[in-house]
Amino acid sequence: MHPVLFELGGMRVYSYGALIALGGLVSGLIWNAKRKAMGLRRDEDFWLLINAILFGGFLGGRILFILEYVPLRGPQLWPAIFSFNKGFSVLGAFVGVAAGIWIVARHLRLEFLRVLDYVSLLAPLWHVFGRLGCFAAGCCFGSQSDAPWAVRFTDPLCMVSSRLLGAALHPAQLYEAAGDMAVFAGLFFMVLPRLERGSMPAGVLSGVYFTAYGVLRFFMEFYRGDTVPAAFGLTAGQGLSFCLVACGLALVFWRRRKPCTLS
Questions:
Q1: CA 116 to CA 139: how far, in whole Å?
Q2: For a 10 Å CB count at each end of the chain, is N or C smaller?
C-alpha cells in the first residue's frame, strides 16, 4: 500500500509508526479525561501510567513478534530488534501492558483492575489505528482470495511475503480493524456506563474485552497469510487467543461475584 508516509531530511517516516502514534494520541486524550476515575490525581502519576503502557506494550509486543516471525539463528535477528518499520504482536503487548499497569498500580496504591478496565476500554480503539498501519505497511497480510474486495500489495518496501507480492489477498487488516471498532463501541456504550454507575465491579470490562478480542483474533487467523500452524492445526496466535478467552471468562465470572463499588 503505502509503507513510507514521507521523507524528511533523508529520514523516512513510516505510515505504521505514524498511525500507531495517532492512535496513542487519541487514546491518551480520552484517558486524560478519565484519569480521576482511575484514581490518578496528579499529572506525574498520569504520565507514569502512560509511560508504563508504552514501554510495556513496546517490549511485550516486540519480543513476541520476534519470537513468532524472526529466525533466531539467522542474521535477521538484530536488524529486526532495532527496526522502526517492523510490526508488533498485539498478544505480546497484552502481557507487557498488563505488567506495566500492575507495577504502576502497586507503586501508586491504585486498584489494579479499575485501571486495567480503563486501559482495556481504549485498547481496541488504539488497535484500530494499529491495523490501519498494518494495512499501509503490508504486515499481518491476508491469505490469497478471489473475493471482489481482495487487495494487491505492489510496493517493494511493503512487508508482504515476496511470493505474494502482487497477488490478490484478503484485506485481513481491515477485517480486524472493523472488528476492533465493534468491540470498542460495545465496551464504550454498553459496558462502561455500568462500570461508572457502580452496578458492575471492576475487572468485568477487562474480562469482556479479553474474551471478545480473543474470539475475534482466533477467527481472524483463518484469513491471515503470514501464519502457519504450530500445533494441533492451530497457529500460535490461535493458541494465545484461546488462553486470552479463558482468562477473560474467568475474570468475568470471578469479578461478578464481588460486590459493586463506585470509585
A1: 28
A2: C
How far is residue 221 CA from its own chain's centroid?
Answer: 15
Query: Is 198:261 a contact under the CB 8 Å cutoff?
Result: yes
Contact 170, 149 (CB under 8 A): no
First to last CA, the chain: 46
Tell me if 263 sits within 8 A of 243, measured CB to CB: no
Whether the CA torsion 100, 247, 62, 184 is positive or negative: it is negative
The three-class DSSP label of residue 142 is strand
| Contact predicate 125/23, CB 8 Å | yes
pLDDT digits (tens, 9 = 90+) for 187-199: 999 999 999 998 8
CA angle 161, 164, 167 (to 5 degrees): 150
What nine digits make up the cell of 16?
A: 505504521
DSSP state for residue 231 in the 8-state scheme: E
- DSSP bridge partners of 229: 235
Exposure b/e, 14-26, CB count within 10 A at least 16 = b = bbbeebbeebbee
192 Cβ contact partners less than 8 Å away, ≥ 6 residues apart: 121, 205
User: What stretches in the chain show pLDDT beneath 50?
Assistant: none
Inter-residue contact 153 to 141 (CB < 8 Å): yes
Q: Whole-model pTM?
A: 0.88
